[in-house]
Amino acid sequence: MGRFTLPGEAGMEKEIKELMEKWGVDAIRDSDGTSLSEELLELGLEVYSTLCLIRMDNEWIKKHPECRQQIYLLSERYTATEQGLKINIMSHLYGEQFEPNTDVDMNKYWQVMDRTSGERVVDWTYDEEEKSITVKNAAPFHEYDVAFLAYQNWEPVSMYNHITNNWTKEHKIPIDVRHPEAGDHILKVLQEWLETHPKTDVVRFTTFIYCFDLIYNERGKEKQVNWFGYAACVSPLAMEQFAKEYGYELTPEDFVDNGMYNTPFKNPTKKYLDWMDFNQRFVSEYAGKCVSLVHKYGKKAIMFLGDHWAGTEPYGKYFKSIGLDAVVGAAGDGVTTRMIADIPVKETEARFYPYFFPDVFHKGGDPVKESQEIWVKCRRAILQKPMERMGYGGYLSLAYKFPDFVTHVSDVARQFNEIYEKTNGRGCDKTGIRIAVLNTWGRIRTWQTHQVAHSLWNQRCYSYLGALEALAGLPVEISFVSFDDIKNGDIDSDTDIILNVGDAGTSWSGGDNWSDEAVVAKIRRFVYQGGGFIGIGEPTAYLREGRLFALADVMGVQKEMGFTASINKPEHSEQGRKHFITEGIAGKIDYGEGTGMIYRASETATVLDTENRSCSLVVNEYGEGRSLYMAGCPYDHRNSGILYRALFWLSKREEDAGRWLTGNTTIERNTIDDGRIAVYTNQSGEDQSICLKSGRILALDPYEMKIIEE
Amino acid sequence: MGRFTLPGEAGMEKEIKELMEKWGVDAIRDSDGTSLSEELLELGLEVYSTLCLIRMDNEWIKKHPECRQQIYLLSERYTATEQGLKINIMSHLYGEQFEPNTDVDMNKYWQVMDRTSGERVVDWTYDEEEKSITVKNAAPFHEYDVAFLAYQNWEPVSMYNHITNNWTKEHKIPIDVRHPEAGDHILKVLQEWLETHPKTDVVRFTTFIYCFDLIYNERGKEKQVNWFGYAACVSPLAMEQFAKEYGYELTPEDFVDNGMYNTPFKNPTKKYLDWMDFNQRFVSEYAGKCVSLVHKYGKKAIMFLGDHWAGTEPYGKYFKSIGLDAVVGAAGDGVTTRMIADIPVKETEARFYPYFFPDVFHKGGDPVKESQEIWVKCRRAILQKPMERMGYGGYLSLAYKFPDFVTHVSDVARQFNEIYEKTNGRGCDKTGIRIAVLNTWGRIRTWQTHQVAHSLWNQRCYSYLGALEALAGLPVEISFVSFDDIKNGDIDSDTDIILNVGDAGTSWSGGDNWSDEAVVAKIRRFVYQGGGFIGIGEPTAYLREGRLFALADVMGVQKEMGFTASINKPEHSEQGRKHFITEGIAGKIDYGEGTGMIYRASETATVLDTENRSCSLVVNEYGEGRSLYMAGCPYDHRNSGILYRALFWLSKREEDAGRWLTGNTTIERNTIDDGRIAVYTNQSGEDQSICLKSGRILALDPYEMKIIEE
């Protein structure tokens, strides 16, 4: 039985028949830029059809330009000199993507701001020809910027595909179905489509309505990317409906947010939470209608997580009401794999990398290597939480030219199936250790912390996300809890360890939540009474009266912010790395970009490592509980190994560790059926071996997985 | 003619006669632990006598314990558990130094604080036996601390000497002359002393009344050291007088300041500025009386900068009223040398390191090396601002055992004299470049930034202080200006370059002064119209709405704080180090602990260097002006060289640079008499050479100085 969705392509019929066998293909799909031939539709495969509702009728939207999707944009900042100030609002934005909306009451929907005084400017004019704002009485040497509504004349994902593949097709304009006539029209289009596509078994929505924040600069390159943004949900209509429902009006500043665009990296305002909720309800309701329609035609409805998924919030409270049969998403590492796998839905499907696009599948490219390094991260995650299906995207004709890759994918598919089947879809045994990842967002951002978009590497973020990547593949239970959960209730009695990781002030660390005495006291009590705490980077950070870490007592470390240089700091202990959590860990630990000026702040703290005179690895005992501080934790087998050992130490299960650890951090061990079967995976690109308890040597090829009855 | 003050020691008469010749000794002094014999007094040398007024009469203070000096102390923080809370207030303080003052109304003068809620606790009891506070209804898992007044039973400088030299003498108790009977008594003691010491020519006060903050921990080691502190000026009497004069009362928290003790690293509160002023006036007035008395006896009065100098503030507005004839201070580097040399007083004297103490002058010690490395830094400063006198401290009998050192000091003294005489005490020619060091304190902290005490190395501080160290020895005019100077007036029209250096939030960077739109606009205008700006570390930092640097536009850089990770940052330019300011500078630049996540924020900015993916050296053009950003600037010849070149570039005097630079950053060139005489100094411990304009090669031995008529 296969679990494999193949991107089909007319003209590849022979090859696809071959791959049905080799890869276990049981479903075939089209995509933006490909179509399926009659012959392909007759192969007996399940047929997936990709639908992007909001770009399905370009003729209609051209006739109803008022129904185009919109977005709030912020110009760059400009400094006024003695000579006054003119701001070209589009100078750093892509003219083909956006068109300033001058149809509205510009005094209300546009905003000119003096960023030096923080005051909104009222006296300005707009030159439509030049697309420039003139501030009449600008204060010399103050900075100004302009927030304005813009129509979206080019749907940004389609635009990305267009530019990447050098298409010359017409630009697709996104339709805003919040306009009743647009909403009705698109439902009608969908119905017609369903009528005329009887061979489709599964409708794969990409996704429903609004794209995440994807703003291109004047050269057509990404300027602003926020996978979790709601900036493109906006329109005067939405703002009016919002005001009516919530009793207050949103202003342009509520959207552009001084250039932060309400990034999830910051603690959200009440207004922004309202705005998210408002859009989630609308999106879920409309998407629910689409799904019902699909079901009415006897087809399944699934959604692609990514692209136009704003407001669907798979971990939000309205997601279930959409009624989807499955979710498919790009699995680029363990974190994004778990982000899809853990969604509360009947089935999930991983679309693995690399995409069959010319950037990897070109002469001299090494798609096998690209795939292997990602696959072994995804595999760790799937071992904990198997997924029902897998697949790839892009052009099969490109990938098929690489026979090694074809063979490699056979192996990936075999492993994928084996994991699912051996574990009956339930995943490997768990250690019983339960970790609560604590940040401002909690559950709604499950596996969605510290990232700008779909496992794209980001500076400094990697130093934090690595801890989540490690956990994604360890046999532990993970929950994502918010400060509100702790304020409004108790810490779940099942919790063994609380993890707080991130930069000071960010939502991931928690910002001003750490000024809440109830939160601080509850967590202190939790640890004091025997709980575990992991802090990475600038955990529990809220700068108050010169002190940064609210839980310096729990962690045994504090960060010198420059206000207590006069205080002689306690000596680092001389213990070095002799500790349970670093046992058998060789080599220099990589803390990524790390955190500086961390000093030992408690006599009970033990400094295991330092970097640039700053404590980088510290354990502490606090009452009956224990704590671990790390200056940063990029993902690698060494850090994953330290973290894994630390979980046993923090939860006082040191004696259990032997059952789980292999003594070689590049070889991970999972078990099935309460230990009856062992799964050994080599995470490295080198041959590795370990000595099993039986005394036998187990050798693994690079990246190999071996399942053994023990 | 000599300019050399020697620490005399009975029994060293023969050696001293020899050194009078070798070192040019013309004055002799006693010190804590040494005395001068009759023979020494008859050598024809000027006689300096060291007086520490507040420890001159131990018998009297033992009879008047209410007149002991006091201090506010803060206990450590303790977490309350379910079992209530008892705090031993002295557990981390030195019992021989402090005695809690229970003679006062403890409800008023003591303070128990819930640091988790920020509220003062009223319900507590004190156990005098145990020296413990019990908080009756402590909130579980809140942290508490205790601020309390304490008598000082051991004067901390004397204590340091005592412990270091293993003395068994009686502990000296410091007298608070604010008590009228104590003040009168000490003036009487001084008068008697003057009567009975006719051979003394110069009274050297160390210093007058209150010691800087010097708090020892339970093991007798420094716990808190703040050279600029006023914590030890406190007493209930002072607080009462203050309340009467200022119309409001100070609380314990105003002194302990949550453990920061009003460090100069933070922006001062209005209350603290009042407290400083209140004490400066008292100290200056009392010191003035002492100085008048000394003058009445035909002797000179000088003060040692350090020890009990709190409130004298040599760069403050009351200093001149003391009427001193000279100031002497420890010269440990260029910065501290200038700190003394620039004091507006008739004469200044440098007490060079090393101190003749056993920590350096022991078998196997290398006092010459210790001295050389410090001397070449001090020499740079003296070349700019010569000092009238030099000297050493400690026990001559120790130093005399090192003949190499005796020879070396002859050389130092020769150079010292030569610099003074060749420049007629006015210093070398100046480039004409004028730099304003901008911080919250301005003039009163001239050469007193970023240090905990007398050129002691401090983590991270060295990365900032290095810039000042470089400037201390360059032929430029330096002024220290405050934000208030800029708010209340204009930027001095003579200013070429503004320098802002330090950590975000600190007084050195400026903290919330950067939220002041007038300050920001005035500095923008200054640069825009042609001024120069140097930012080091986290300059112009005030975190507002996710943005840190207020003058990101001027500097062309911004720091990512975690709130704009979604914004793609401009590419670094590929220029590398090809720029005027890095011309001829080889090797890796040391930014010390540096600053991370700095990105290019302006299209006009040029990134000359990066470190760990963060911009570390950036130049920018802003209107007619120019800016330099450095991630850190420890002092070394390379950074000093870059900074020097940058001064020419920033002030658009590139064409002048050739006259001043040698092309080898280890050899510095100064000139005298408008260029007629050149002074070449080798700052390194290796042989160095350069090619002079004449074509001749100039070679210098390690650390050598050569004065040449050109």
Key traits:
homodimer, Rossmann fold, 35 strands, alpha/beta, 8-stranded parallel β-barrel, 710 residues, TIM Barrel
Helices, strands, pairings?
The structure is a homodimer of 710-residue chains.
Chain A: E1 4-7, H1 13-22, E2 25-29, H2 38-41, E3 46-51, H3 58-63, E4 70-74, E5 78-79, E6 85-88, E7 98-100, H4 106-109, E8 111-114, E9 119-121, E10 124-127, E11 132-135, E12 143-152, H5 156-164, H6 180-196, E13 202-205, E14 213-216, E15 222-226, H7 236-246, H8 252-256, H9 270-296, E16 300-305, E17 326-331, H10 334-341, E18 347-352, H11 367-384, E19 389-391, H12 396-399, H13 403-422, E20 434-439, H14 461-472, E21 477-482, H15 483-488, E22 497-502, H16 517-528, E23 532-537, E24 541-544, E25 547-549, H17 552-555, E26 557-559, E27 598-600, E28 606-611, E29 614-622, E30 625-630, H18 637-650, H19 657-660, E31 667-672, E32 677-682, E33 688-691, E34 697-700, E35 705-709
Helix pairs in contact in A: 6-9, 10-11, 10-14, 11-13, 14-18
Question: How would you describe what is shown here?
Answer:
- Two copies of one chain form a homodimer.
- The first copy, chain A, has 710 residues and is of the alpha/beta class.
- Chain A has three domains: 4-58 and 179-215 and 267-422, TIM Barrel (Alpha-Beta Barrel); 434-660, Rossmann fold, CATH 3.40.50; 667-709, no CATH class.
- Chain A contains 19 helices and 35 strands.
- An eight-stranded parallel beta barrel of chain A has the order 1-2-3-13-16-17-18-19, surrounded by four helices. Chain A has a seven-stranded mixed beta sheet with strand order 21-20-22-23-30-29-28.
- In chain A, a hairpin with a 2-residue loop joins strand 29 (614-622) and strand 30 (625-630).
- In chain A, helix 6 (180-196) runs parallel beside helix 9, helix 10 packs across helix 14 (461-472) and helix 11 (367-384) packs parallel to helix 13 (403-422).
- The model of chain A has no long low-confidence stretch (mean pLDDT 95).
- Chains A and B meet through strand 15 and helix 16 of A and strand 15 and helix 17 of B.
